Amino acid sequence: MEMAQLGPGQRSAALEAMAATEHQVVVVGGGVVGAGIALDAATRGLTVGLVEARDFAAGTSSRSSKLIHGGLRYLEQLNFGLVREALTERSLLLRGIAPHLVRPVSFIFPLTHRVWERAYVGAGVGLYDTLALSLGQPRGLPAHRHLTRRGALRLAPALRRTAFTGAVQYWDAQVDDARFVLTLVRTAATYGAQVASRAQVVGFLREGARVTGVRVRDLETGAELAIRAQQVVNATGVWTDDIQALVGRIHSSAGIITRTPVSVLFVIPWGRHWIIGTTDTDWSLDKADPAASRADIDYLLGRVNAVLAVPLTHDDVEGVYAGLRPLLSGESDVTSRLSREHMVAQPVPGLVMIAGGKYTTYRVMARDAVDAVAHSLDGKVPPSCTDAVPLAGADGYPALWNSRARLAAASRLHVARIEHLLRRFGSLAEEVLALIGSRADLGRPISGADDYLRAEVVYGCTHEGARHLDDVLARRTHVSIETADRGVSAAPEAAELMAGALGWDADQTGREIEYYRKHIDAERASQAMDSDRAADAIRLGAPEIVPAADSVR
Ligand SMILES: Cc1cc2nc3c(=O)[nH]c(=O)nc-3n(C[C@H](O)[C@H](O)[C@H](O)COP(=O)(O)OP(=O)(O)OC[C@H]3O[C@@H](n4cnc5c(N)ncnc54)[C@H](O)[C@@H]3O)c2cc1C
After folding, report:
1. pLDDT tens digits for 308-326?
2. Are β-strands 353-356 and 342-345 bridged in parallel, bridged antiparallel, or unpaired?
3. Taken in order 59, 63, 69, 73, is the CA torsion positive or negative?
4. Residue 289: per-residue pLDDT
5. Is residue 191 a contact partner of residue 39, using CB atoms and an 8 Å limit?
6. Backbone dihedral angles phi then psi of residue 435, each to the nearest 5 degrees
7. Is residue 93 lining ligand 1, measured as CB closer than 6 Å?
8. In DSSP terms, which residues pair with 110 in a beta bridge?
9. Which atom of ligand 1 is nearest to the CA of 243?
10. Per-residue pLDDT tens digits for 214-245
11. Is any ligand 1 atom within 6 A of the Cβ of residue 244?
12. Ligand 1 atom at minimum distance from 200 CA
């Protein structure tokens, strides 16, 4: 097999190739880990790209102690698993993978205490050697041996004679760390990986919530290119967090729940965003649009930062919303301690009242309320059957989910878009896709809110009862809390689409955008206020857009 040459033309050819076709894997970071990943993937037959911001191995991988070792230290900590794993690798590298780059090296351990230290160190390195042998592979290194002071001085005349009484000699391996990485990269390229140094990842490509590639700056030319990938691997060592910060600040594959003095704090995954809450504070002001104050935000940031490795700041807050729990209250209770159970009552004949409960138990609440109604009705009412009634979009959903690749091909949308639609509309996603089929422009993302497709705005109006811009940006979609500008830049395009669907004239369209903008301005201003009252006052300064203009009735 002829080895790949990383010559003058190779780098730009690799970048061009990466930009031209979607690769199965793109690895970010050309240290030993990234280069190793590129080789591993390429030798499994995957199409691979590797981009390194500086030179290959310019990071930690050229600044190590250059040892390939089992780690005597871990042995002392009785971490046998780690030592065994490393010794296996040492043996593989020494004997087959890179005997030219990984070489035996011996160490002398000078002893100052004649008896116990020789026994302790001797037992340690003895175990080290035995472990290596027990792996079933030839060790590739001589065994340790005990030395007298004179013997040690023969090997290391540089040692001060009076500084030790004897020594133990053992063997490990060493590597030219930078060359090793370069060799890994070259070998990966030989197996087909496209590799480029001085190519810095400056952002991610996305289709909805999914990462679909990286934006790379060619540091030689200053050009920026989009490199598409089915999977991106972040192997940037000490820069890992910086790269992750380009995707989002909280790195967790699960939500987080912690205790607070009054309740619990949830950190809940929401697509590529996170919802952090709740404050569980009292609110006695406007019920329609409760406002979050700066104090509320500070409280939540304080609470969540107590458990996060990299603290969040106000700049990380993309959106904020506030809601009131319908709790069964006693006069002086703290809200989080109030009952979240529900209660059905008939205070006067003809009236059923239901209170308390929570989202999760809505169906039980509904059943109990209707039971109460049924009780008062003449004639027999059958029992609730909502436990067996799938909601709109539920029927056929699993089968459609399994067909998402076919739907993607048929609609010419990325499969991530299909997943997004299926997760939002269930099997009714087919109706949204039909809209796109009849009007190709609706298949484009909304500029300023590109997690969502234009069709979703129209569908919101034609099928989901949206009447105003806020309906679409805050509830049919969640653009208002998922974009850094809270949907302000997406508002004009969304309003245009709504105008077409709802028959708005230019006046109404302008009014909708204006109201939305004011609403967001007020929301932002209220969140700078320290008290609920001040926040509420500002929030109320931006009324909702009702009544609508005649054209939309
Ligand atoms: C002092 C020291 C001694 C050590 N000694 C040993 C030892 O003897 N034996 C041992 O086994 N281990 C040793 N280690 C550990 C070992 O060196 C590291 O674990 C290993 O090198 C890490 O490799 P890496 O590929 O993860 O990171 P790195 O080598 O740092 O590679 C990450 C790469 O990502 C690149 N990058 C960053 N941002 C971007 C971006 N935006 N776009 C593209 N690329 C980017 C960087 O330029 C860098 O080249 C030592 C570590 C240190 C610090």
Report:
1. 888 899 988 988 888 887 7
2. antiparallel
3. negative
4. 77
5. yes
6. -60, -45
7. no
8. 167
9. 41
10. 999 999 999 999 999 998 898 998 887 788 77
11. no
12. 42
- Give me ligand 1 centre to Cα 481, in Å: 37
Tokens found for residue 270: 């929401």
Residue 259 is which amino acid?
A: R
| DSSP alpha helix (H) spans, 98-148 | 116-134
For residue 398, whether the previous peptide bond is cis, meaning omega lies within 30 degrees of 0, is no
Q: Is the CB of 29 under 6 A from ligand 1?
A: yes
Q: How many angstroms separate the alpha carbon of residue 78 from the centre of ligand 1?
A: 26
Task: Mark out the alpha helices in 350-414 (DSSP H runs).
Answer: 362-376, 397-402, 404-411
CA dist 183 → 38, 167, 190, 357 (Å) = 12, 37, 10, 63
| Partner residues linked to 229 by β-bridges | 23
Q: State the pTM of this model.
A: 0.74
CA contacts within 13 A on the Cβ side of 218: 18
**Is any atom of ligand 1 closer than 6 Å to the C-beta of 62?**
no
Segment holding 442, helix H or strand E: none
Would you say the CB of residue 239 lies under 6 angstroms from ligand 1?
yes
CA dist 314 and 277 (Å) reads 15
Return the residue whose CA atom lies nearest to atom 49 of ligand 1.
59
Which H or E element spans position 108?
strand 102-111
